[in-house]
Amino acid sequence: MTPKRKKRMAFVLSIVVGVSLAVGLSLYGLNQNINLFFSPTQIAAGEAPVGQRIRAGGMVVDGSVQRDPQSLKVSFGLTDYAETVTVSYDGILPDLFREGQGIVAQGVMNDSGIFVASEVLAKHDENYMPPEVQEALEAAGKTVVNADDAGKTQSGG
Question: Is the residue at 99 inside a domain?
């Protein structure tokens, strides 16, 4: 092999190694920041990893919201009407958060089976349902009727 070919081969190999290293680091970084969505049924079945950041979505169970009067801690049930998971959150809840509301929470599962949320997101208007929550409810065989629409239907208006 001539010296010119050796230089060319070393240059090509260094490019291949550099690109491989960049791709590997990018994939590692993306894997660490991925937020997988789990329904309460999947969480109850043990499919959600413990200690890894995930998103969980469903409906807030009526009558389940318990607030600590001494702090901002709150716990509530999250359901897809097939299973219910307890969510613990320490912070200010969104203004649109209420019982019977569709929400998505981001956080981690602890060893006790409680979802410890670091962020709670509520729908932004009365007609919106997060797509992940809608799919989870449909998979559980439930169709959600908007509370405003249900009131109109019942009153005949």
Answer: yes
